[in-house]
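Hi, here's the filled form for the chain we discussed.

Project: internal
Contact: R.S.
Residues: 449
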Amino acid sequence: MYLLAKASDQLLTQYDVITPLMQYRYDEEFRHKIELAIVALLKDIWDGAEKICQIKKWQITTVSLSIPSQWTLEFEEKYRDLAVQAWDIAPSSIIFVTEAEALAHCAWYDRTDDCDLRNQAGNTNAEIILLLDFGGHNSNSCILKISELGGNNASFFLMDRPEGKFNSSKLQPDGARDFNWYILGRDGQHKRVMVPAALVLKTFEQALRLPMKTAEDRIVTAAELSDCQARVLVAGGTSKSRYLQQKIKECCAANGLREPLFLETLGTPGFTARISEGAAYAVAHAPSVDEFLSRGAGFGIQMLQRRSADASGTIWDNEALFMYTNGHPSATVQLELTGHDELKLLCDPFFNRDPSRLYYNDCYDLLYLGRLPKGRWTFGLFFEQSEGETSLLLKFAYRKLRSNGHNTRCDITISLYMRLGARTLHPGFPDQDQDKITGQLPQMFRSLA
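And the returned structure, exactly as it came back:
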């Protein structure tokens, strides 16, 4: 898929396994053969699923596919195009869920295993869970926020985007032992091949360099968000490595967190092989936009305050000014900005406090507004229905300081969709580049200066 999706050089340099195939990167005949092979594989999968559905008298209406967290829209578009060629289903019925999200859903909804996410969180009173998945070719991570621990209405959402890095850690160090193989030579004789333990360890460390750096950064973030109360759960075949386990334990201890839990050692080996189950759970239990809002999600505006353009402070306010939650009047927010301040909209899916403040540790970033021009600003946030779709309506008024002129007023309507794996609301559409969406508003606000 990495050749077909025309992956960026940045992604390809992480994935050493693809190196031998790079010579065929622009070979159309070779690429076509890969496409035919993938379509044939997908057809076999579809035929097997349909046979089961015929016996059970079921009908396939939606397909949920798990993908690495670092895959871009180009990967999704190519994967969807190949799947449509193989399957009798509309493109819009194919949903992508990252592997990290799928693992989170599997651990949440499958209550039969010791790795039950609700039990692990409830037993330690941890509202924030960091899930690390170390596979043989791919590593993923995500940070979850859980509400109402122990309650019947317990739920969770992802606090930020899942992260993924390639690795090639299939060959794991085993203490001080060398690795030995016997291969059959062309002369028909078996020959012994030995790889020294020191070389295996060095190669293993190199393969895990990027994933470990990501894991360390995520552990730091989880500790900061939870006041050192977060629970770290580690999955994946590579997580059985004693070397990796020791590194994760040391990092957790250095950040004041309790010892991590390694899911593959809980009597349920192969947990990560059930990623497809989690992808199905993610779609089956996904709330709609209206359901998300009706459950009491709260919205607010957060500020990063700077006195000057070269000010060193880059810490956002921990509290956000309340703007909207279902069942309460929308609040108007008035701000006097310096021209160096930055603003963004936050969302707390489990907002249940008196409408006054939202707290960053309970929220995820909804929409970046940018560094707005100096002046007096007024914001209002609403939700409106049109042709069965719910949109976000952002109203604002702007007036330059020391100006007797009229306010500049504008209403901005923004489409919304649910990111099913994350259980979070986002602007735009699933197949849109989020960076482009978030870049439009800051550009428009700057034009008012």
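Let me know if anything looks off before we file it.
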